[in-house]
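Obj.: predict assembly geometry.
Materials: sequence records (below).
Method: joint structure prediction, all chains together.
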Amino acid sequence: MQIAEFVEQSLGRWRSQRSGHNLAFQHFEEVRSTIDISARSNDDAEVLKLCQLHDVEPDSIASPFHMEWEGESDWDEDESPRGNCLLVPIPNSHDPSRGLLLRSQGYAETIPSVGRYVFTEEGMFVLATEYDRAAAEERIWFATENLRFRVSTIKTSNGTGILTASFASEVRSLSG
Amino acid sequence: MQIAEFVEQSLGRWRSQRSGHNLAFQHFEEVRSTIDISARSNDDAEVLKLCQLHDVEPDSIASPFHMEWEGESDWDEDESPRGNCLLVPIPNSHDPSRGLLLRSQGYAETIPSVGRYVFTEEGMFVLATEYDRAAAEERIWFATENLRFRVSTIKTSNGTGILTASFASEVRSLSG
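Observations (raw structure tokens):
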């Protein structure tokens, strides 16, 4: 599996059902959301800006894409989690099954981040991102063409271990 | 990774936090439970009985183990899910990273089952079990020595797709 195929499979609208586990307190969180993933061209202005920020040659990138999500919160309309970010993969020139991923906003922290991804032999996408005070791992795999799963874990880098884990089931929204 | 090492790592008491997703209805389920995993000897009477049931030579098995779980239900003491099952791995004699797993009670159905397991290059345990009317996949991996994750999916075999997915975070209970 390579990043172009993975991004291609991911494009579209997804209905996401996500469960968060706070491991220390055994607390659960439940979020339903809609995720829109769309392709961006290599010479898109925002893509070029993100490349510049990270000193990356624009011709080394592949399949940039944009994610936008809007959550449903049962208890407070104003609290509904929403956001978006731009993602720019840079495949390794020697081994196309791995590379870097630039992100305009990180998962664990809302600042630009750079992660390292690798596809396992099964085609599971595994992304590791180091932040100042935390490290995040994200695993994404397709069960069918229209169903993908995502497991994210965040651990503090001071050695106290993993803080939260979350699991999302994402079903393609065929109605658009 | 081979089954003996995986079972060895799994022994002990685990505090489990499990989220179930009903994908069609976007319904969530939350269960906290305690899981005890203990080793059984190859010549244990119940192990031999399970081998006999499946016409398996007792000298082809490795690392049989027993699982017992007791859930906590917030709303009804009588409803707390509990159960136990005996598991008997039969490693493939040519490729020890894969094999069969006999189970005294299946995950999707409470009848004896036989699944096929394989360890990925990362050491993730992937078990596929076919039932009469359903197919189950279970993925288990260790994030640290004392934390393991488990993703289970059940799909009906009549082609209507995956019905439920669940995610468990299992933290080793060091207090015993």
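Conclusions so far: The interface with chain A takes residues 15, 17, 19, 21, 23, 26, 28, 30, 32, 120-122, 126, 137, 143-144, 147, 149, 151, 153, 161-162, 165, 167, 169, 171 of chain B (CB under 8 Å).
To do: check interface contacts against the pulldown list.
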